[in-house]
């Protein structure tokens, strides 16, 4: 009886009343649509935070991801290649972190069975022996040669230019473009599922390194980011499978023990891959040693 009366009462609304209710619905439903992209976690440094992003409500097929947010104005990026660093064999992700001392290290991209990197790879302004891949359009770049440029970003070679005769950035790694600035997913839907590491450019100028905690297809991941994380401008996929890896320095992990909260990202990061394989190339981040406080601007 109450249900019938309520239904009849709702049908008697004037158009103006229905319009007003529509506005109220939008206002109060707004926060629910943005919670999936709100990152709240551990502040590991001034400009470095790590959290768990769970898009399950909007993406039922995508498990939680570990999300590392990096402010390029406060953290420096460095590309490493094992031969250039004087190692006879590739190191696993934990060894890379120990040898380099970076606060955080993640896999740099795809490589052949002989550990030759696939695509452009530059460290400290020098080519590390690889050539431009003809079809991969994603390009991570950092540490610009010219003052005033953004210190790290994701370029899309479909729209952006990169002059190899006059290298505009000292640190460069090429890989697959996953999601571009138009919202287009740039990988095919193959059904193949694996662990993934992504590098994304945020609308606020920060970079996000995203690491899956369960296997997923790249196409499904691209759809999820497009629909549930609209503040990401463009996203590139680094190497996946057993090569998908991130290492956080033990000192930063120990620092979290002083924080009175559950650090859910630690077991997810440690347990997502059982075997850490040798990686020929990685990207590390460390705090900038600058005192001027000058901040780069976007050109």
Offer a few descriptive terms:
299 residues; four-stranded antiparallel sheet; 6 helices; disordered N terminus
Structure write-up:
The longest helix is centred in the first third of the chain and has 20 residues, at 15-34. It is globular and about 45 Å long. Strands 1, 2, 3, 6, 7, 8, 9, 10, 11, 12 and 13 form an eleven-stranded antiparallel sheet that branches. It contains six helices and 15 strands. It is of the alpha+beta class and 299 residues long. Mean pLDDT is 83; it is low at 1-36 and 291-299. It has two domains: 1-37; 38-287, no CATH class.
Q: Average pLDDT value? A: 83
Count every helix, treating DSSP H or I runs of 4 or more residues as helices: 6
Label the structural class: alpha+beta
Distance between the termini: 64 Å
Helix content estimate: 10-25%
Please provide the ordered H/E string of secondary-structure elements: HHEEEEHEEEEEEEEHEEHHE
Low-confidence stretches: 1-36, 291-299
What is the strand content?
25-35%
Largest sheet: 11 strands, antiparallel
- Global geometry: globular
Give Rg in angstroms.
22 Å
- The figure for the number of domains is 2
Count of distinct strands: 15
